[in-house]
Amino acid sequence: MPGVVVVGTQWGDEGKGKVVDLLTQRVDAVVRFQGGNNAGHTVVVGQDKFILHLIPSGVLHENKSCFVGNGVVVDPEVFIAEIDRLEQRGVDVSPRKLRLSERAHLIMPYHKALDVAREKAKGKSAIGTTGRGIGPCYEDKAARVGVRVVDLLEPEILTEKVRAATTEKNFWLKEYFGAPTLDAEAIIADYLRYAERLRPFVTDVSVELDHMLESGGLVLFEGAQGVHLDIDHGTYPYVTSSNPVAGAASPGAGVGPKRLSGVLGIVKAYTTRVGSGPFIAELEDENGRWMQEKGAEFGSTTGRPRRCGWLDTVVVRQSVRLAGVSCLCVTKLDVLTGLKTLRICTAYKLDDGSIVERIPASLGVLARCTPIYEDLPGWEEDISQARSLEDLPDNCQRYLQRLAELVGAPLALVSVGPERDATIVVRDPLAVKEA
User: 57 among the known binding-site residues?
Assistant: First the structure.
Protein backbone atom coordinates (compact mmCIF):
# COMPACT_ATOMS: atom_id res chain seq x y z
CA MET A 1 0.00 0.00 0.00
CA PRO A 2 2.06 2.99 -1.19
CA GLY A 3 -0.07 5.92 0.02
CA VAL A 4 -2.32 6.12 3.08
CA VAL A 5 -4.37 9.23 3.82
CA VAL A 6 -5.24 10.30 7.37
CA VAL A 7 -8.38 12.45 7.64
CA GLY A 8 -10.54 13.84 10.42
CA THR A 9 -14.14 12.66 10.27
CA GLN A 10 -15.70 15.47 12.32
CA TRP A 11 -14.85 19.19 12.53
CA GLY A 12 -11.14 18.77 13.16
CA ASP A 13 -9.28 18.35 16.46
CA GLU A 14 -9.84 14.58 16.36
CA GLY A 15 -6.26 13.73 17.28
CA LYS A 16 -4.71 13.24 13.84
CA GLY A 17 -1.32 14.41 15.09
CA LYS A 18 -0.93 11.55 17.53
CA VAL A 19 -2.00 8.98 14.96
CA VAL A 20 0.38 10.28 12.28
CA ASP A 21 3.19 10.36 14.83
CA LEU A 22 2.43 6.76 15.79
CA LEU A 23 2.31 5.48 12.20
CA THR A 24 5.37 7.42 11.06
CA GLN A 25 7.54 4.76 12.66
CA ARG A 26 6.54 2.44 9.80
CA VAL A 27 6.50 4.78 6.80
CA ASP A 28 9.16 6.54 4.76
CA ALA A 29 7.59 9.97 4.52
CA VAL A 30 4.75 12.17 5.76
CA VAL A 31 3.11 14.79 3.54
CA ARG A 32 0.85 17.66 4.55
CA PHE A 33 -1.51 18.28 1.61
CA GLN A 34 -3.89 21.15 2.50
CA GLY A 35 -4.76 23.90 4.96
CA GLY A 36 -2.46 26.34 6.69
CA ASN A 37 -1.39 27.35 10.17
CA ASN A 38 -5.03 27.50 11.24
CA ALA A 39 -4.48 23.83 12.07
CA GLY A 40 -2.79 22.57 15.20
CA HIS A 41 -1.58 18.99 15.68
CA THR A 42 -0.61 18.07 19.24
CA VAL A 43 1.83 15.21 19.78
CA VAL A 44 2.91 13.89 23.21
CA VAL A 45 6.28 12.10 23.41
CA GLY A 46 7.05 10.97 26.96
CA GLN A 47 6.83 14.09 29.08
CA ASP A 48 7.18 16.41 26.10
CA LYS A 49 4.28 17.98 24.21
CA PHE A 50 4.74 19.38 20.71
CA ILE A 51 2.19 21.55 18.90
CA LEU A 52 2.71 21.65 15.14
CA HIS A 53 0.92 23.99 12.75
CA LEU A 54 2.55 23.60 9.34
CA ILE A 55 5.28 21.00 9.65
CA PRO A 56 4.03 17.39 9.38
CA SER A 57 3.76 15.44 12.63
CA GLY A 58 6.32 12.94 11.38
CA VAL A 59 9.13 15.46 11.94
CA LEU A 60 9.61 14.10 15.47
CA HIS A 61 11.06 10.86 14.05
CA GLU A 62 14.62 10.40 12.86
CA ASN A 63 15.32 9.44 9.26
CA LYS A 64 11.83 10.24 8.01
CA SER A 65 11.15 12.64 5.16
CA CYS A 66 8.55 15.37 5.71
CA PHE A 67 6.92 17.29 2.88
CA VAL A 68 4.70 20.37 2.77
CA GLY A 69 2.69 20.00 -0.43
CA ASN A 70 1.47 22.52 -2.95
CA GLY A 71 -2.05 22.41 -1.52
CA VAL A 72 -0.89 24.01 1.73
CA VAL A 73 -0.88 27.79 2.18
CA VAL A 74 2.28 28.78 4.01
CA ASP A 75 2.94 31.76 6.26
CA PRO A 76 6.75 31.92 5.95
CA GLU A 77 7.17 33.74 9.24
CA VAL A 78 5.22 31.03 11.06
CA PHE A 79 7.01 28.27 9.16
CA ILE A 80 10.45 29.59 10.10
CA ALA A 81 9.43 30.14 13.73
CA GLU A 82 8.16 26.56 13.92
CA ILE A 83 11.48 25.27 12.57
CA ASP A 84 13.36 27.34 15.14
CA ARG A 85 11.22 26.12 18.06
CA LEU A 86 11.70 22.49 17.10
CA GLU A 87 15.45 22.90 16.65
CA GLN A 88 15.69 24.56 20.06
CA ARG A 89 14.13 21.40 21.49
CA GLY A 90 16.64 19.16 19.76
CA VAL A 91 14.52 18.07 16.78
CA ASP A 92 16.26 17.79 13.40
CA VAL A 93 14.44 20.07 10.95
CA SER A 94 17.16 20.34 8.34
CA PRO A 95 16.48 20.59 4.57
CA ARG A 96 17.60 16.96 4.37
CA LYS A 97 14.49 16.05 6.33
CA LEU A 98 11.93 18.78 5.57
CA ARG A 99 10.93 19.80 2.04
CA LEU A 100 8.64 22.65 0.93
CA SER A 101 6.78 22.65 -2.38
CA GLU A 102 7.81 25.41 -4.76
CA ARG A 103 4.16 25.52 -5.89
CA ALA A 104 2.66 26.20 -2.43
CA HIS A 105 1.05 29.61 -2.03
CA LEU A 106 2.25 32.11 0.54
CA ILE A 107 0.13 33.87 3.12
CA MET A 108 0.91 37.58 2.98
CA PRO A 109 0.33 40.31 5.60
CA TYR A 110 -2.56 41.71 3.58
CA HIS A 111 -4.29 38.32 3.73
CA LYS A 112 -4.23 38.40 7.52
CA ALA A 113 -5.34 42.04 7.62
CA LEU A 114 -8.31 41.31 5.36
CA ASP A 115 -9.22 38.20 7.35
CA VAL A 116 -9.40 40.15 10.60
CA ALA A 117 -11.16 43.16 9.05
CA ARG A 118 -13.88 41.01 7.49
CA GLU A 119 -14.61 39.11 10.69
CA LYS A 120 -14.80 42.37 12.61
CA ALA A 121 -17.17 43.86 10.05
CA LYS A 122 -19.49 40.84 10.24
CA GLY A 123 -20.01 41.25 13.97
CA LYS A 124 -22.39 38.60 15.26
CA SER A 125 -22.46 36.98 11.82
CA ALA A 126 -18.73 36.20 11.91
CA ILE A 127 -17.93 32.62 10.93
CA GLY A 128 -15.12 32.25 13.47
CA THR A 129 -11.97 32.22 11.34
CA THR A 130 -8.61 32.13 13.10
CA GLY A 131 -7.56 35.42 11.49
CA ARG A 132 -4.47 33.71 10.03
CA GLY A 133 -5.20 34.80 6.45
CA ILE A 134 -6.01 31.31 5.19
CA GLY A 135 -9.20 32.15 3.29
CA PRO A 136 -7.90 35.32 1.58
CA CYS A 137 -4.77 33.42 0.50
CA TYR A 138 -6.85 30.69 -1.13
CA GLU A 139 -8.95 33.44 -2.77
CA ASP A 140 -5.87 34.89 -4.42
CA LYS A 141 -4.80 31.39 -5.48
CA ALA A 142 -8.15 30.84 -7.20
CA ALA A 143 -8.04 34.34 -8.71
CA ARG A 144 -4.57 33.56 -10.11
CA VAL A 145 -2.91 36.51 -8.40
CA GLY A 146 -1.30 34.60 -5.52
CA VAL A 147 2.34 34.63 -4.49
CA ARG A 148 3.97 31.19 -4.57
CA VAL A 149 7.03 29.84 -2.81
CA VAL A 150 8.90 29.83 -6.12
CA ASP A 151 8.35 33.59 -6.34
CA LEU A 152 10.52 34.03 -3.25
CA LEU A 153 13.44 32.83 -5.36
CA GLU A 154 12.79 35.39 -8.10
CA PRO A 155 12.95 38.86 -6.48
CA GLU A 156 11.70 40.79 -9.52
CA ILE A 157 8.55 38.69 -9.79
CA LEU A 158 7.99 38.84 -6.04
CA THR A 159 8.31 42.63 -6.05
CA GLU A 160 5.92 43.05 -8.96
CA LYS A 161 3.29 40.75 -7.45
CA VAL A 162 3.44 42.27 -3.97
CA ARG A 163 3.21 45.86 -5.20
CA ALA A 164 0.19 45.07 -7.37
CA ALA A 165 -1.56 43.08 -4.66
CA THR A 166 -0.89 45.63 -1.91
CA THR A 167 -2.37 48.44 -4.02
CA GLU A 168 -5.61 46.49 -4.41
CA LYS A 169 -5.77 45.20 -0.83
CA ASN A 170 -5.06 48.64 0.64
CA PHE A 171 -8.03 50.02 -1.27
CA TRP A 172 -10.31 47.46 0.34
CA LEU A 173 -8.75 47.85 3.78
CA LYS A 174 -9.04 51.65 3.77
CA GLU A 175 -12.14 52.40 1.71
CA TYR A 176 -14.39 49.49 2.63
CA PHE A 177 -13.28 48.33 6.05
CA GLY A 178 -11.75 51.51 7.45
CA ALA A 179 -8.72 49.50 8.52
CA PRO A 180 -5.00 50.47 8.45
CA THR A 181 -3.16 50.03 5.16
CA LEU A 182 0.12 48.16 4.59
CA ASP A 183 3.52 49.17 3.19
CA ALA A 184 4.40 47.12 0.11
CA GLU A 185 8.12 47.85 0.34
CA ALA A 186 8.29 46.66 3.94
CA ILE A 187 6.52 43.44 2.94
CA ILE A 188 8.94 42.88 0.07
CA ALA A 189 11.94 43.39 2.35
CA ASP A 190 10.59 40.91 4.91
CA TYR A 191 9.80 38.27 2.30
CA LEU A 192 13.18 38.56 0.60
CA ARG A 193 14.70 37.89 4.00
CA TYR A 194 12.45 34.85 4.44
CA ALA A 195 13.54 33.69 0.98
CA GLU A 196 17.15 33.28 2.03
CA ARG A 197 16.15 31.18 5.02
CA LEU A 198 13.71 28.99 3.09
CA ARG A 199 15.67 28.53 -0.13
CA PRO A 200 17.38 25.25 0.97
CA PHE A 201 13.99 23.67 1.79
CA VAL A 202 12.31 24.44 -1.54
CA THR A 203 11.82 21.61 -4.04
CA ASP A 204 9.40 20.03 -6.47
CA VAL A 205 7.59 17.89 -3.90
CA SER A 206 5.54 16.11 -6.59
CA VAL A 207 8.67 14.77 -8.28
CA GLU A 208 10.35 13.72 -5.04
CA LEU A 209 7.22 11.87 -3.93
CA ASP A 210 6.95 10.15 -7.29
CA HIS A 211 10.51 8.88 -6.99
CA MET A 212 9.86 7.65 -3.47
CA LEU A 213 6.61 5.89 -4.36
CA GLU A 214 8.06 4.42 -7.55
CA SER A 215 10.87 2.85 -5.54
CA GLY A 216 8.39 1.18 -3.19
CA GLY A 217 8.30 3.75 -0.40
CA LEU A 218 5.34 4.04 1.95
CA VAL A 219 3.94 7.56 2.33
CA LEU A 220 1.45 8.95 4.82
CA PHE A 221 -0.69 11.88 3.66
CA GLU A 222 -1.73 14.17 6.50
CA GLY A 223 -4.71 16.49 6.23
CA ALA A 224 -5.73 19.37 8.45
CA GLN A 225 -9.17 20.06 9.98
CA GLY A 226 -11.97 17.56 9.32
CA VAL A 227 -14.32 16.50 6.53
CA HIS A 228 -17.17 18.67 7.81
CA LEU A 229 -15.00 21.76 7.44
CA ASP A 230 -14.49 20.92 3.76
CA ILE A 231 -15.35 23.92 1.59
CA ASP A 232 -17.47 21.76 -0.73
CA HIS A 233 -18.92 19.15 1.61
CA GLY A 234 -18.88 20.83 5.02
CA THR A 235 -21.42 23.02 6.81
CA TYR A 236 -20.87 25.93 4.42
CA PRO A 237 -20.12 28.81 5.03
CA TYR A 238 -18.86 27.67 8.46
CA VAL A 239 -15.99 25.79 6.88
CA THR A 240 -12.33 26.14 6.02
CA SER A 241 -11.15 27.34 2.61
CA SER A 242 -9.74 24.07 1.30
CA ASN A 243 -10.65 20.39 0.94
CA PRO A 244 -9.76 18.15 3.92
CA VAL A 245 -11.39 15.14 2.24
CA ALA A 246 -9.04 12.30 1.32
CA GLY A 247 -9.40 12.89 -2.42
CA ALA A 248 -7.64 16.24 -2.02
CA ALA A 249 -4.40 14.46 -1.12
CA SER A 250 -3.80 13.78 -4.80
CA PRO A 251 -3.85 17.37 -6.16
CA GLY A 252 -2.61 18.77 -2.85
CA ALA A 253 0.61 16.76 -2.96
CA GLY A 254 0.98 16.23 -6.69
CA VAL A 255 0.51 12.47 -6.85
CA GLY A 256 -1.85 10.43 -8.99
CA PRO A 257 -4.95 8.98 -7.31
CA LYS A 258 -3.76 5.43 -8.04
CA ARG A 259 -0.98 6.06 -5.53
CA LEU A 260 -3.54 6.35 -2.72
CA SER A 261 -4.58 2.94 -1.48
CA GLY A 262 -6.21 3.48 1.91
CA VAL A 263 -7.86 6.07 4.13
CA LEU A 264 -7.71 6.10 7.92
CA GLY A 265 -10.53 8.14 9.43
CA ILE A 266 -9.91 9.66 12.85
CA VAL A 267 -13.00 9.98 15.06
CA LYS A 268 -13.07 11.41 18.55
CA ALA A 269 -15.17 9.30 20.94
CA TYR A 270 -17.40 12.35 21.37
CA THR A 271 -17.80 15.44 19.19
CA THR A 272 -16.19 18.89 19.35
CA ARG A 273 -16.31 22.00 17.24
CA VAL A 274 -14.42 25.31 17.36
CA GLY A 275 -16.04 28.54 16.24
CA SER A 276 -19.48 29.11 14.80
CA GLY A 277 -21.66 26.75 12.82
CA PRO A 278 -24.34 24.10 13.34
CA PHE A 279 -23.73 21.38 15.90
CA ILE A 280 -26.80 19.20 16.42
CA ALA A 281 -25.42 17.03 19.26
CA GLU A 282 -23.92 19.95 21.20
CA LEU A 283 -24.19 19.87 25.00
CA GLU A 284 -24.38 22.87 27.27
CA ASP A 285 -24.74 20.92 30.49
CA GLU A 286 -22.51 19.13 32.98
CA ASN A 287 -21.73 16.38 30.44
CA GLY A 288 -20.45 18.92 27.95
CA ARG A 289 -18.36 20.58 30.64
CA TRP A 290 -17.01 17.15 31.65
CA MET A 291 -15.79 16.54 28.10
CA GLN A 292 -14.28 19.99 27.84
CA GLU A 293 -12.41 19.71 31.14
CA LYS A 294 -11.39 16.04 31.02
CA GLY A 295 -10.46 16.27 27.35
CA ALA A 296 -8.65 19.63 27.69
CA GLU A 297 -10.76 20.85 24.81
CA PHE A 298 -9.11 24.14 23.98
CA GLY A 299 -7.81 24.93 20.50
CA SER A 300 -4.08 24.31 20.04
CA THR A 301 -3.94 27.13 17.48
CA THR A 302 -6.20 29.78 19.06
CA GLY A 303 -6.73 28.59 22.64
CA ARG A 304 -10.48 28.96 22.14
CA PRO A 305 -12.65 26.54 24.13
CA ARG A 306 -14.14 23.84 21.96
CA ARG A 307 -17.86 23.22 21.93
CA CYS A 308 -18.53 19.64 23.08
CA GLY A 309 -21.29 17.12 22.50
CA TRP A 310 -22.19 13.46 22.20
CA LEU A 311 -20.80 11.36 19.38
CA ASP A 312 -22.74 12.18 16.20
CA THR A 313 -22.66 9.21 13.85
CA VAL A 314 -24.60 11.11 11.18
CA VAL A 315 -21.52 13.31 10.86
CA VAL A 316 -19.03 10.43 10.91
CA ARG A 317 -21.07 8.21 8.58
CA GLN A 318 -21.15 10.97 5.97
CA SER A 319 -17.37 11.38 6.30
CA VAL A 320 -16.85 7.65 5.79
CA ARG A 321 -18.69 7.97 2.50
CA LEU A 322 -17.13 11.25 1.33
CA ALA A 323 -13.56 10.33 2.22
CA GLY A 324 -13.75 6.64 1.33
CA VAL A 325 -12.64 5.68 4.83
CA SER A 326 -11.10 2.20 4.98
CA CYS A 327 -10.90 1.94 8.76
CA LEU A 328 -11.22 4.05 11.90
CA CYS A 329 -9.08 5.26 14.75
CA VAL A 330 -11.13 6.24 17.79
CA THR A 331 -9.40 8.83 19.99
CA LYS A 332 -9.93 10.20 23.50
CA LEU A 333 -12.01 7.23 24.58
CA ASP A 334 -10.59 7.65 28.08
CA VAL A 335 -12.31 11.04 28.44
CA LEU A 336 -15.70 9.29 28.67
CA THR A 337 -14.62 7.18 31.65
CA GLY A 338 -16.86 7.97 34.62
CA LEU A 339 -19.98 9.02 32.73
CA LYS A 340 -22.85 6.73 33.78
CA THR A 341 -24.80 6.97 30.52
CA LEU A 342 -23.41 7.63 27.06
CA ARG A 343 -25.52 8.85 24.19
CA ILE A 344 -24.89 8.35 20.48
CA CYS A 345 -26.70 10.48 17.94
CA THR A 346 -27.90 8.03 15.27
CA ALA A 347 -30.10 10.33 13.14
CA TYR A 348 -31.87 13.70 13.17
CA LYS A 349 -35.56 14.50 13.41
CA LEU A 350 -37.02 17.44 11.50
CA ASP A 351 -39.73 19.56 13.08
CA ASP A 352 -42.25 17.92 10.72
CA GLY A 353 -41.42 14.52 12.23
CA SER A 354 -39.41 13.15 9.29
CA ILE A 355 -36.10 11.40 9.89
CA VAL A 356 -32.83 12.73 8.43
CA GLU A 357 -29.81 10.43 8.15
CA ARG A 358 -27.42 12.74 6.32
CA ILE A 359 -26.23 16.34 6.74
CA PRO A 360 -28.57 18.63 4.74
CA ALA A 361 -26.90 21.22 2.53
CA SER A 362 -29.40 23.83 3.73
CA LEU A 363 -28.50 25.41 7.05
CA GLY A 364 -32.16 26.35 7.35
CA VAL A 365 -33.16 22.70 7.23
CA LEU A 366 -30.33 21.76 9.58
CA ALA A 367 -31.52 24.36 12.09
CA ARG A 368 -34.86 22.56 12.22
CA CYS A 369 -33.22 19.27 13.20
CA THR A 370 -32.91 17.75 16.65
CA PRO A 371 -30.82 14.70 17.55
CA ILE A 372 -32.17 11.18 17.88
CA TYR A 373 -30.16 9.41 20.57
CA GLU A 374 -29.39 5.85 21.46
CA ASP A 375 -28.30 5.36 25.08
CA LEU A 376 -25.59 2.99 26.23
CA PRO A 377 -24.24 2.32 29.72
CA GLY A 378 -20.91 3.93 30.60
CA TRP A 379 -17.95 2.52 32.53
CA GLU A 380 -16.04 3.53 35.64
CA GLU A 381 -12.82 1.53 35.18
CA ASP A 382 -9.55 3.21 34.21
CA ILE A 383 -8.78 2.21 30.61
CA SER A 384 -5.50 4.08 30.14
CA GLN A 385 -3.42 0.90 30.49
CA ALA A 386 -5.53 -1.20 28.10
CA ARG A 387 -3.57 -2.51 25.11
CA SER A 388 -6.16 -4.84 23.59
CA LEU A 389 -9.93 -4.68 23.18
CA GLU A 390 -10.25 -7.50 25.69
CA ASP A 391 -8.58 -5.28 28.32
CA LEU A 392 -11.46 -2.80 28.07
CA PRO A 393 -14.62 -3.00 30.21
CA ASP A 394 -17.57 -4.73 28.55
CA ASN A 395 -19.54 -1.48 28.29
CA CYS A 396 -16.57 0.21 26.65
CA GLN A 397 -16.29 -2.59 24.09
CA ARG A 398 -20.02 -2.32 23.36
CA TYR A 399 -19.68 1.43 22.79
CA LEU A 400 -16.89 0.89 20.25
CA GLN A 401 -18.74 -1.92 18.52
CA ARG A 402 -21.87 0.18 18.17
CA LEU A 403 -19.87 3.14 16.85
CA ALA A 404 -18.34 1.00 14.10
CA GLU A 405 -21.73 -0.52 13.20
CA LEU A 406 -23.42 2.87 12.92
CA VAL A 407 -20.79 4.52 10.73
CA GLY A 408 -20.04 1.52 8.52
CA ALA A 409 -16.29 1.18 8.94
CA PRO A 410 -14.15 -1.21 11.01
CA LEU A 411 -11.92 -0.22 13.91
CA ALA A 412 -8.18 -0.19 13.38
CA LEU A 413 -6.84 1.81 16.34
CA VAL A 414 -8.26 2.95 19.68
CA SER A 415 -6.48 5.68 21.65
CA VAL A 416 -6.87 5.48 25.43
CA GLY A 417 -4.48 8.29 26.36
CA PRO A 418 -2.31 11.03 24.81
CA GLU A 419 0.96 9.07 24.84
CA ARG A 420 2.24 7.15 21.82
CA ASP A 421 1.92 3.75 23.49
CA ALA A 422 -1.56 4.42 24.91
CA THR A 423 -3.05 2.85 21.80
CA ILE A 424 -4.90 -0.40 21.09
CA VAL A 425 -4.17 -1.91 17.67
CA VAL A 426 -7.22 -3.79 16.40
CA ARG A 427 -6.00 -4.18 12.82
CA ASP A 428 -3.16 -2.76 10.76
CA PRO A 429 -4.31 0.62 9.32
CA LEU A 430 -1.50 0.49 6.77
CA ALA A 431 -2.73 -2.82 5.36
CA VAL A 432 -6.53 -2.43 5.30
CA LYS A 433 -7.65 -1.44 1.80
CA GLU A 434 -11.40 -1.70 2.01
CA ALA A 435 -14.03 -1.20 4.68
Answer: no
pLDDT computed for residue 300 by the predictor = 63
Q: Give the H or E element holding residue 74.
A: strand 73-74
Q: Could you give the domains of the chain?
A: 3-99+203-262 (3.40.440.10), 105-197 (1.10.300.10), 267-425 (3.90.170.10)
Going by the DSSP 8-state scheme, the letter that residue 124 receives in this structure is G
The answer to whether 174 is annotated as binding is no
Radius of gyration of the chain (CA): 22
Residues with catalytic function: 13, 41, 141
SS3 256: coil
Residue pair 250/233 in contact by the 8 Å Cβ criterion:
no
**Cis peptide before 393, with omega less than 30 degrees from 0?**
no
Tens digit of each residue's pLDDT (9 = 90 or more) over 150-186 = 999 999 999 999 999 999 999 999 999 999 999 999 9
By three-state DSSP, how is residue 355 classified? Answer: strand
**Would you say 101 is a known binding-site residue?**
no
Centre a 10 Å sphere on the Cβ of residue 47 and count the other Cβ atoms it contains: 6
